[in-house]
Amino acid sequence: MEINGNNGNTIDAPYLRLKTAEKPRRSFMINVQSPKTNLRHSRFDPMKTDVVVPEMLASVVPPSDTFNPSTDSLHAAMRPIIVLAQCFSMLPVCGINKPDASYLRFTWRNPKILYTAIAFLGVLLMSIANVWRLLTSGINSTKMTTFVFYATALVTAIMFIRLAMQWPCLARTWEKLEREFTSRHRRISKTTLATRFKIVTTVVMLLALVEHGAAMLSAYISALECAKYRGETDIIGIYFQSQFPQVFTKLPYSLWKGILVETINILSTFSWNFVDLFLILISIALADQFRQLNSRLFAIRGKAMPEWWWAEARNDYNHLATLTRRVDNHISSIVLLSFATDLYFICIQLLFSFNPIRGAVRKIYFCFSFGFLLARTTAVSLYAASIHDESRLPAPILYSVSGSSYGHEVTRFLTQVTTDNISLTGMKFFSVTRSLVLTVAGTIVTYELVLVQFNSVQQVDQSNITNACESYFGFT
């Protein structure tokens, strides 16, 4: 195609387009407020390789498939975990098996509440029995540890009832944000959130089951030795009486009472493990939301983006920050309880380690129990700290934004990323960051030195068989 110029010469059309494209456009990306106005008024230089045309933005970070709340939401991922928790009298929320979070509700007129109340009453009676034992027979490390264990189960039950009252609203808010993000963020993992939740839950609960089974086996061996020493045949009776002296020194023993007390002990053990598991799962879900946003930001690194794009990204980040604070308001007391009890049990188990442990089974149990406790505490710390880590990752991308697209929205975004502390907290006493792991480790060493110095460790003569008639670790 040829075009006649003013001087009568013939100009090739492609050459004309090239000359036109070479003209500088100094108004590049100015006053661009939305995708629509940007499409009408913005002009991009096709010779620049770092410019992304608005029509191509969707292809830079392909969105996920259509959001399906019955499979893709936090509600769907938490469904089997909450069902498992309800089997052990925790999180009595209705509508768990419904397709989305809009069906969730909490009501006091619910059979699950009755089951929770019965379990709560059992743990309360065990706590009272432990207090009475401390007042009447004196205080030592084993008795105190048993009291802390059941007191922790009691407080945990109260906290999760409160959380159950707030869970429907929180789940709906989370699902609304997930639905909105699906249209802009692509899924970064081939493994769904529900699958990851199931894997983590299976690992933690299996280890907890092995740990509790080893505790029961260790106590049963002690009961065998005690029965042999006393010349008795009721090994089960000796097992229950030696494991729960706070109950059977005040009440006459019978088998049904022993089974009932053991059931309460199992419920308390599950709640102790479930606290850490719940925090790990919530941390995974929150960090995953930040990770999707960061993936979208990394995809445009080095490219000039319009002002409206940065405004949209900053708005998404702000929504995630608001969601994190809302979640923290609901579970910060649980975070504090988790770190306090784990720290206490780590210190007390280190203190018990100075006592000679008789028998290979007891040694294996003690090592496994202590290792599992350390691993669980470390996992909670690192997974919860990953939220803070992911919230800081946009900073390097924002620092590398080119001058042509560095505008007011980028400045606001960068300010929020670098100054806002987005993390889970322990009732605002501390923020769970990666450095907290070293702080907790230092605290354990400090308190252990204090315990060793001010608590005389009783070195028991292992040749005395009557030790087999005493419970070794009162929190199992």
From TrEMBL:
GO molecular-function terms, A-Z: sweet taste receptor activity
GO CC field: plasma membrane
Family: Belongs to the insect chemoreceptor superfamily. Gustatory receptor (GR) family. Gr5a subfamily.
Keyword tags: Cell membrane, Membrane, Receptor, Transmembrane, Transmembrane helix
Protein name: Gustatory receptor
Segments crossing the lipid bilayer: 113-135, 147-170, 191-210, 264-287, 334-352, 364-385
The organism's place on the tree of life at top rank: Eukaryota
InterPro entries listed in its UniProt record: Gustatory_rcpt
Location relative to the cell: Cell membrane
Membrane topology value: Multi-pass membrane protein
